[in-house]
Design a protein that fits this description.
Keywords: ATP-binding, Nucleotide-binding, Transport
Shape: globular
Order of helices and strands: EHEEHEHEHHHEHEHEEHEEEEH
CATH architecture of the largest domain: 3-Layer(aba) Sandwich
Distance between the termini: 32 Å
Number of domains: 2
Number of strands: 13
Strand order of the largest sheet: 5-6-7-3-8-9
Structural class: alpha/beta
Protein name: ABC transporter domain-containing protein
GO molecular function: ATP binding; ATP hydrolysis activity
InterPro entries: AAA+_ATPase (IPR003593), ABC_transporter-like_ATP-bd (IPR003439), ABC_transporter_ATP-binding (IPR050763), P-loop_NTPase (IPR027417)
Family: Belongs to the ABC transporter superfamily.
Number of helices: 10
Amino acid sequence: MISINHASFSYVTFTKQSGFSGAWHDLFHRQKSTVAAVRDISLQVNRGEVLGLLGANGAGKTTLIKLMTGILPVNTGKVRLFADQVPFRKRPAFLQRIGVMLSQKSQLAWDLPPLDTLVLLREIYHISHDQFTTWLAFLTKELAVTPQLHVPVRKLSLGQRIKFELICTLIHRPEILFLNEPTIDIDVSSQANIYRFLKQLNQDTQMTIILTSHNTKDIEALAQRVAVINHGRKIFDGTTTGLISHYATAPILEIVTDGPLTPLPAHVRQVDPTHYEVDATALATLPVDPRHILRVSRRNGNLDAILTQLFSEEAPAQ
């Protein structure tokens, strides 16, 4: 479904000097610099896969999404969707087969109810009235927003607006769905609803989903495979479990006790009053009385901690 071969993209930025003299100088001698956003990335995505793109701010995730959706052209390399479609040509037959939801961009008109925007999209995508009515009823029911169809967008909660943004992206039944930060700032109940819906949609229709998020819960709940982008380069491609196993520096023991530990033993970190983490490589035996332990489990590191470590590494030289 998606084939990316040695794709690269660089932005050109300009430096502005302060003051009148600086502005006068910039008028004739603008100082420009080139920033490499995507560096020689190759990636293959099969039909029905759910791929999570992970990376820090500025790592190149959103730029890669823009290359795949045709918002930006590649400087070098190739990007192909559906075997032979070049995204940047933006052919109607191509645009009909993809859906894009960018968290910073809204399709909804602020003072109008969501239904008005959806009817407009129906006309844009040439959807029949019967298909539109049936599919819209299904989407709003599954995402629990049917009563809000006629409520002005400005009166909706953030979670309800995000769900309608998702419905706008899905209204024409795309084959590939691009989601950039789909659950940003929404409550856990709405997140769980969106997770369940997307997993069921992927299972029932084999829709390919490309997901970027800073919320690792999104990735752990949805992604069958992850690609980690750091400073514009792909540094990992595999499962979430494989990522943790590959980069975890030490196994961790999670301990739940029947009460707080006082004083706190060495090499033990308190998560909450009765939940603790122990570095399993630092101790030969548990520094906790077994009579007070309710549960012990082992895991090989934490996804958030691993990503923090990876993204703190220095950028490669230009």
